[in-house]
Specification:
There is one protein chain. The protein is of the alpha/beta class. It contains 21 helices and 8 strands. A 5-stranded parallel sheet has the order 5-6-7-4-8, with helices on both faces. Helix 6 runs parallel beside helix 7 and helix 12 crosses helix 13. The longest helix has 22 residues. The N and C termini lie far apart (54 Å). The protein binds adenosine-5'-diphosphate and magnesium ion. The site of magnesium ion has 4 residues, from helix 7.
Length: 480
């Protein structure tokens, strides 16, 4: 491999990163290596078969065109799986077949009876170690069977399935798997699905813990002087699933979390984590922990689109009718709920529960009229518009009479510093972008600079009513 081809590879990576964005890049391409560059073909390798098949089915063309930018004659990309990982493992370890993500189908039907049966069989085997470690209870309804797939969660679902299909001693594909999303978008549902799957097959010990349980378990173990036993037990499991990591607090808990994470990952055990934000935004966590968390596969679940909301509702109704055969919801009512109730999966559940309760209590059929009445407070006034960072920069620049490039520049004069802070603050409050992402979009600034700006403006609006008004005005302009 010549230095020149490595330089070309570096440029290709840069181009790729710019095209697909940091999150996608670090999830799929960060561990891709250049093996050989020939006149018409490039050979590259990735550490897992899952990555290989995912890149082939989703990014083959893009990868090729990025290379052609460097070397127009290239007509072919060959992707191989590096074997180092597998060789290092005991010889009986078999690589898991990559799942066929693209063709995976789902009928969204829930067989309530079957789910419960499976659940009770697994509950027994689960309870032993769940109890010892203060494991969190699993909800029998939250399984892969009842999880509906849509565009916003395909990736997360595929990764969760992949993790769940692993067997004891298998090579771990990506570690940790880190899923992040806003409230009610299905994180817990996926994590519990993984836990059920592992425990039903009975082959691996899967421990599901909320971060609070982790804290509680650890702290109480310390108090009862059994922390060594606790640690041993924790390290004796195959898959550790931790939900709502953003709630992990306290220095000693975090240190222990860090040790546990390192010990499990280094021992080839699977770790799965969910949180409401990406690892880089877990501000209270130590930098090393954050980078360890970001070192596996990080996937985001996007907001539930209307069609996915509708599919979830349909699945829910069909599950409900197995217990309440008289419960019928006309199609227009379902469309109405899907359209008008917020993106949060919990509200969808709440909406149906109300219809069901009304139907049971009054014996009256579900009608559009009744749905409208019951749903009133769940309906958002108007779906907030998706605000773009460019729009924020444009509107703020106009308001303060500076140019957009001033906002992105490194100039530190007062007349650009304040508008820049306001713009970053708005970017954080009006978009779902992470702090590092916002920093990048503001001339490649560090996420701590963004955080500082956000805190600064938050502090100021409390006392400065003129600024508060200005910001309100900007928000209104942006959301109109
Ligand atoms: P989170 O943990 O992300 O806050 P949950 O997993 O608790 O969200 O999901 C909230 C509710 O929405 C649950 O009842 C869950 O079953 C439902 N839900 C979310 N996404 C899906 C989905 N893709 N398919 C089926 N149900 C879903
Ligand atoms: Mg949750």
């Amino acid at each position: 491999m010549t230095g020149i081809s490595q330089e070309q590879w570096t440029r290709v990576k840069g181009r790729l990163r710019a095209e697909v964005g940091e999150d996608v890049f670090s999830s799929w391409f960060a561990r891709m290596d250049l093996e050989a560059l020939e006149a018409e073909a490039v050979r590259m390798s990735v550490p897992t078969r899952f990555l290989k098949s995912w890149i082939q089915s989703h990014y083959a063309d893009r990868l090729l065109s990025c290379w052609q930018h460097e070397q127009p004659d290239i007509g072919r990309i060959e992707l191989t799986v590096r074997s180092a990982v597998l060789k290092a493992l005991p010889s009986k370890a078999k690589p898991v077949e990559p799942i066929d993500v693209v063709r995976e189908h789902h009928n969204g039907k829930i067989n309530g009876a079957e789910v419960r049966h499976v659940a009770s069989a697994a509950t027994a085997s689960l309870s032993a170690h769940q109890d010892a470690l203060g494991g969190s209870p699993l909800d029998p309804r939250l399984t892969f069977e009842s999880f509906v797939i849509g565009r916003s969660n395909t990736l997360a679902h595929a990764a969760a399935k992949q993790v769940a299909s692993g067997r004891r001693g298998d090579a771990v594909m990506f570690n940790p798997l880190y899923i992040h999303a806003g409230v009610g978008l299905g994180k817990t549902h996926l994590l519990q699905s993984i836990s059920w799957a592992g425990n039903v097959s009975g082959e691996r010990k899967v421990l599901y813990l909320t971060a609070e349980k982790f804290m509680y378990g650890f702290v109480s173990a310390l108090r009862t002087q059994s922390s060594i036993a606790f640690k041993d037990a924790l390290r004796g499991i195959d898959v550790l699933v931790i939900d709502d990591l953003q709630f992990l607090q306290g220095k000693s808990t975090q240190a222990e979390f860090c040790h546990t994470l390192n010990a499990l990952i280094d021992a080839g055990r699977q770790v799965v984590i969910a949180a409401d934000r990406p690892p880089s935004d877990l501000e209270s966590l130590d930098e090393r922990v954050r980078s360890r968390l970001a070192g596996g596969l990080v996937v985001e679940i996007g907001p539930l689109a209307e069609e996915l909301r509708l599919e979830i509702l349909k699945a829910r109704v069909s599950a409900a009718t197995s217990y309440h055969p008289a419960f019928e919801v006309p199609a227009p009512v379902l469309s109405f709920i899907a359209k008008s109730v917020t993106q949060n999966g919990r509200d969808l559940e709440g909406a149906l529960n109300r219809l069901l309760a009304h139907n049971k209590l009054t014996g009256l059929p579900v009608t559009m009229d009744m749905a409208e009445r019951e749903m009133r407070d769940l309906i958002r006034p108007q779906e907030p518009k998706r605000v773009k960072i460019e729009d924020i920069q444009r509107v703020v620049a106009r308001q303060y009479n500076v140019s957009r490039s001033d906002l992105l520049s490194s100039r530190r004069t007062a007349n650009v510093v304040r508008p820049r802070q306001v713009a970053m603050y708005l970017a954080k409050t009006l978009t779902l972008r992470s702090l590092p992402e916002i920093g990048r979009r503001f001339g490649g600034r560090d996420h701590t600079t963004v955080l500082h700006a956000v805190r600064k403006i938050e502090g100021l609006v409390g006392n400065d009513s003129t600024l508060a008004e200005e910001i309100e005005l900007l928000k209104r302009q942006l959301q109109e």
